[in-house]
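Field reference: sequence -> structure
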Amino acid sequence: MLENDCQIYKLNKVYTRKDIGEILGTSTKGGKWTTGYTTFNDELYIFATIDGAGRTGHNYHNRFLENDILEWYGKTNSQINQPLIKRIINNDIKVYIFIRYNDKPQFTYIGLGKCIKYFDESPVRIYFDYEKRNLESLKDENIKKIEDLENISITEKESIIKSRIGHSKLKEILLNNEKKCQLCDVKREELLIASHIKPWSKSTSQERLDLNNVLLLCPLHDSLFDKGFISFDDKGKVIISGVLSKNDILSLNINENLKINLKEDQKKYMKYHRENILKTR
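Structure field:
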């Protein structure tokens, strides 16, 4: 069982290296803190860029495997016989894991890591279990219990589940990237909604927590998208449902020039939305 070091860092909370330095009472500017991992007070801090190369010294393809285990690479020329790597694979050092999905300075803390498998390669490749994955497993069990209830409607079940693991965590991560509605200039955080592209009720547990299955939208555009009055093509250009009248379109202040930045990994979800959610005549 992984120990939750809740007095220092909070699971799912976003930190910069500077934030961590202030907590530790040290400077994290430059030097070893700008690489993919470093030690401080005999503890290891991993800063992993997921599905992309890091800035310096750690340019390998970290990723989450199908079961959400973290596949992580050491620095160039790292080997299993090096003292620090030995301690990592023997779980003889406390490992704090912070991740990001882009090249921005904010990282999300996913908990203390535990090596469960390693590969005798250079650079070293390690599989980490971590606190957040264990918490998500518990959440999945709770979701299953709610889904098995027979005396409440699908809509009520969905509402309860969303409130339990809520869109709040997805929204928190999205806000680090987007800062405003992806279709307009609404920036007030309490008005923004993490809107699933493939509906929550139709998604697997993994799809529900996939950031590629979420858009950050204001209440108006969330409602239009959720109800199928708008969708987007593979280039991110808005598709307006034919059921809306010209007066509806004018009143809702939408037009065919609206566009979002649609990533490659979002296209499969948007295809589902176009084919199953977008209203047709």
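Note: Confidence is low (pLDDT under 50) at residues 1-6, 138-143.
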